[in-house]
Amino acid sequence: MTTINTSNKQLDDVLKEVWKDLVDGVSSARNPFHTPAVSSLGTEGPEVRTVVLRGADPGERELFFHTDARSPKYAQLQADPRLEWMFYDRERKIQLRARGHCTVHREDNIALQRWQDTSDNSRWCYTSSEGPGTPIETADAVQHEDEGYVNFVAVRCRIERLDWLYLRAGGHLRCQFLWVGDSWDGQWVAP
What we know:
The protein is α+β, with helices and mostly antiparallel strands and 191 residues long. The chain has one domain: Pnp Oxidase, Chain A. It has four helices and nine strands; from the N terminus they run H-E-E-E-E-H-E-E-H-H-E-E-E. Strands 1, 2, 3, 4, 5, 6, 7, 8 and 9 form a nine-stranded antiparallel β-sheet that branches. The two termini are 22 Å apart. 24% of the residues are buried.
């Protein structure tokens, strides 16, 4: 088990670790930060689902995931761009929540660049003849078409708040960071 040295943990160290974990989560499917949960607001309240972390840019405070234009979350984020992310590393016992505002990109330069950087296996997910959540007759009734780009959406989220929690046996540690002006303002908070 990986342990965290907390004897002299500083807020700046935590913030650097957070963004390193997020960047690392993009490139490795085995990284626990690779598949976070995100929550958006639907007509009946909050809706949570797992996504694949597709981009992390500490300098711009941005996280990316991709979705299908026919999915409910696409419409939800157009109506209300607020989004909450939740990451959990079971081995290190670290939970990270990140909150921000999203912009959705469909058939624009950002979407095209991200589509071009997407693997063929991932592109295949957007070729379904039916949109996510559409009732079908049997489990394998979905057909796939040639062109998936028309259904592809890149979601870019500018992070405004981070909440880091370390679940340790000797007492949990928690801190929060808020983006204020042009920098992060961090503080330790009771867990």
